[in-house]
Amino acid sequence: METMLEARELAKSYGTGAGALKILDGISFSVKKGEFVSIVGPSGCGKTTLLMALAGLLKPDAGAVSFKGKVLTGPSAGIAVVFQDYSRSLFAWKSNLENVVFGMIRNTTLSKAEKRAKGRELLAAVGLDGFADHYPWQLSGGMQQRVAIARGLASESELLLLDEPLAAVDAQTRADMQDLLLELAERFQQTCILVTHDVDEAVYMADRVVVLTRRPTRVDHDIVVDLGDRRDQITTREDPRFLEIRHDVMAAIRRFRAETPLAEKA
After folding, report:
1. Which are the contacts of 201, defined by CB distance < 8 A and separation ≥ 6?
2. Dihedral angle sign, alpha carbons of residues 49, 161, 60, 208
3. DSSP H or E run through 147
4. DSSP assignment of 88-118, as one string?
5. Spans of all domains in the chain
6. What is the distance between the alpha carbons of residues 36 and 161, in angstroms, rounded to a whole number?
7. Which of 2, 147, 167, 251 reaches 20 to 30 Å from 173, CA-CA?
8. Using one digit for the tens of pLDDT, what is the confidence trace for 97-127?
9. What would the pLDDT profile of 174-220 be if each residue is shown by its tens digit?
10. What's the CATH number for 3-78+157-261?
11. Rounded distance, CA 84 to CA 195, Å?
């Protein structure tokens, strides 16, 4: 398969001189077209920093990110990001439809009417048919996140970066949204990278799980999730292989947590 994205020896520190805090320390991995890759690691290891570098929104101190064979020097039209804090990423003064249409801002081939028609189709795809003319603040948290996902899809990006998009929703909504994301990724033929603290979520959704170390952060494991293409919230999570992978990932993160100095845990 074609390599969609490649990170090569990414390094990033915050601050300068003796007080600089090294976050990323030579991270390398690649993602092939059509893959769903989860990234997990101990709290504070720099997962969001890494995702922003992969999106071209944060310049690394060293190393490079290549998207479809070209080194990123800034945001790319082929990459979309769905942020954790959907309440801040959505425009409260715009309707849900207008928020989704905003995702097509770089599309110069569609007319305004065509964009609105497509926006309504995407809202229907995420289960919000009939809510196009409502505003985000009139929706529940899970529904707002669906609007954010629809906007990410509206950009027609080939790569969707998901920064803990389900962290703020309840357990049942989270399970439903996991299945929705997998369905939409297949339907729209998107490559996805998910950053999450939830190990079960990481294993359930992914073709591969990239496990990061504590700071300064490197890749510790890159685990293939050989559970088949179709996932089910009951049978997949009861599969012995699922439990085995979950155990390996959790054990690694606990080990890094145990190695972290007490001052950093506070």
Report:
1. 38, 166, 174, 178, 194
2. positive
3. helix 141-154
4. HHS-TTS-HHHHHHHTTTT--SS-HHHHHHH
5. 3-78+157-261
6. 10
7. 251
8. 999 999 888 777 889 999 999 999 889 888 8
9. 888 899 889 888 888 889 999 999 999 999 999 999 999 998 999 99
10. 3.40.50.300
11. 10
